[in-house]
Amino acid sequence: MIVFPNCKINLGLNILQRRADGFHDLETVFYPLPVTDALEVLSPGQLQFNSTGIPVPGNAADNLCLKAWHLLKADFPELPPVNIHLHKHIPIGAGLGGGSADAAFMLQLLNNKFRLELSTAQLIAYAAQLGSDCAFFIQNRTAYATGRGEILEPLELNLAAYSILLVHPGIHVNTGWAFGQITPRVPALSLRDSIQHPLEAWKDLIHNDFEAPVFQAHPILKQIKEKMYNAGALYATMSGSGSAMVGIFPKNNIAGILWDTGYRVFEII
Ligand SMILES: C[C@@](CO)(OP(=O)(O)O)[C@H](O)COP(=O)(O)OP(=O)(O)OC[C@H]1O[C@@H](n2ccc(N)nc2=O)[C@H](O)[C@@H]1O
Ligand SMILES: Nc1ncnc2c1ncn2[C@@H]1O[C@H](COP(=O)(O)OP(=O)(O)O)[C@@H](O)[C@H]1O
């Protein structure tokens, strides 16, 4: 069985307060985009994991795909060992949630393949144990998110009338470090309200709290954002804790921007 975990971008990200458990309450809008990994699971077999494509940092044993299998195995002893192959295409440490997407798709794949009969709510609860933005990928539809990022409200927002540009300059931002740079604050205008304004107004209303510290550490990211606006973007932002940059352009109006050849660039037109 093969599935194609997709990435997400954040439209706005406010870090509201630090919690007793060390995490932060936040508000953000998750928006799914069709830049994908490929995840194949074969059985029967020995429990095995290998990956191709972009190298995943860390030990294979810590890969979120394997963690998802172990999480379900603890509650479903009958779950057989599987042979997992991940082809990694979504940039890593980019604020695109690629690892979380792999984990959520793995949970769903195992649920379907082995008829575990888990409900959506149960899958969301398992996903939330694997990562704060993992729950989003279970339903994988645009959502206003609060709590750690796992409390999701569906949001009617469709950007199909625009073209979206993703630029990843290859900088890996550690999410835990990024949270450590923030002084949490509740903004005067909630993202729940500001996201309802026309996209043309977002530039002045919708912010990502991670931009200030991450731009300070990596000034090239601010330049990419300015370059997007100079090229006609209606809205430009960093996604999540970075370093992927997002530009939302009038339909079919992305072409012609020149980027460093080392960057990975995705156009959703
Ligand atoms: C910042 C966001 C915004 O969408 O995305 P990314 O930039 O990673 O994609 C997410 O909240 C990231 O979610 P995720 O990548 O799953 O984070 P986790 O693995 O749960 O946590 C990584 C680390 O980030 C910090 N963390 C994460 C989420 C949260 N609400 N508060 C936190 O303080 C904690 O220090 C934690 O140890
Ligand atoms: N399947 C996976 N894909 C990507 N990263 C993974 C995976 N499994 C574990 N990780 C770990 O998660 C970290 C980043 O996760 P990722 O979700 O790609 O970051 P971000 O949310 O910033 O895009 C990596 O440094 C890696 O150590």
TrEMBL record:
Matching Gene3D superfamilies: 3.30.230.10, GHMP kinase, C-terminal domain
Q: What class of enzyme is it?
A: transferase
Give the superkingdom in one word: Bacteria
Q: Where is the signal peptide?
A: none
Q: Which amino acid positions bind ATP, per UniProt?
A: P91, I92, G93, A94, G95, L96, G97, G98, G99, S100, A101
Record-level GO BP terms: isopentenyl diphosphate biosynthetic process, methylerythritol 4-phosphate pathway; terpenoid biosynthetic process
Q: Where is the GHMP kinase C-terminal domain?
A: 196-252
Catalytic reactions on record:
4-CDP-2-C-methyl-D-erythritol + ATP = 4-CDP-2-C-methyl-D-erythritol 2-phosphate + ADP + H(+)
User: Which keywords does UniProt give here?
Assistant: ATP-binding, Isoprene biosynthesis, Kinase, Nucleotide-binding, Transferase
- Where does the GHMP kinase N-terminal domain lie? 63-138
Alphabetized NCBIfam families for the sequence: ispE
Q: Which family does it belong to?
A: Belongs to the GHMP kinase family. IspE subfamily.
**What is this protein's function?**
Catalyzes the phosphorylation of the position 2 hydroxy group of 4-diphosphocytidyl-2C-methyl-D-erythritol.
The name under which this protein is listed is: 4-diphosphocytidyl-2-C-methyl-D-erythritol kinase
Organism of derivation = Chitinophaga agrisoli
**Source taxonomy:** Bacteria, Pseudomonadati, Bacteroidota, Chitinophagia, Chitinophagales
Q: Which gene encodes it?
A: ispE
